[in-house]
Design brief:
By secondary structure, this protein is an alpha/beta fold. It has a single domain, classed as Rossmann fold (3-Layer(aba) Sandwich), CATH 3.40.50.360. It has 6 helices and 6 strands. Strands 1, 2, 3, 4, 5 and 6 form a 6-stranded mixed beta sheet that branches. Helix 1 crosses helix 6. The longest helix is centred in the N-terminal third of the chain and has 14 residues. The relative contact order is 0.18. Bound molecules: flavin mononucleotide (FMN). The site of flavin mononucleotide (FMN) has 22 residues, from helix 1, helix 2, strand 3 and strand 5.
Length: 153
């Protein structure tokens, strides 16, 4: 089975989770990158605004075609209770070409509406995983990732 892990990460949390998942599944990876820098306080504020307003910011060209994979795992941080805007842009472009999917997110408290938005732009997921920042710090996220991976098969 060909598996692709696609993620967007502004500050590294989702990247860490995505790498742990991809390593265990021997999956290919695709990192979604902003066309314009999102660092600093202005980047933070713009991120919140774009998530709330449902914006589709420009992202850099991707290198893999999700339609060539049997399963595409999609990872995004939660922004103001919603999907991060760069991942929304990716799913608006490619979400419909995904055959089978599962979602994961990192957040401070909960996933809010992020998974619902992801589903509306792609498919019903076969599994979901939400990891809180404190679970990354404590190392608890590894156990949750292993449970998530078991639920994919
Ligand atoms: C603009 C913005 C809004 C956020 N809003 C929420 C939120 O509503 N709920 C929540 O639990 N975490 C929220 N967070 C925290 C992020 O989801 C969390 O830090 C996540 O782990 C970041 O992932 P990353 O390091 O891969 O970018 C927000 C972060 C940013 C930058």
């Amino acid at each position: 089975m060909r598996i692709l892990v696609v993620f967007y990460s502004r500050t590294g949390n989702i990247r860490r989770v995505a790498e742990a998942i991809a390593e265990r599944l021997k999956a290919d990876m695709e990192e979604i990158r902003d066309a314009r820098s999102r660092s600093g306080m202005l980047g933070f504020l713009r991120s919140g605004y774009e998530a709330l307003a449902g914006k589709l910011p420009k992202i850099q060209q991707v290198s893999r075609s999700p339609s060539e994979y049997d399963l595409v795992l999609i990872g995004s941080p939660v922004w103001v209770g919603k999907l991060s805007s760069p991942m929304r842009s990716y799913l608006a472009l490619y979400g419909r070409s995904i055959k089978q999917t599962a979602f994961f997110c990192t957040c401070k408290s909960d996933e809010g509406r992020a998974f619902k938005e992801m589903e509306a732009l792609s498919k019903k997921p076969i599994a979901t995983l939400c990891i809180r920042e404190k679970e990354i710090k404590s190392g608890e996220y590894i156990r949750k990732i292993e449970e998530f991976i078991k639920s994919l098969t």
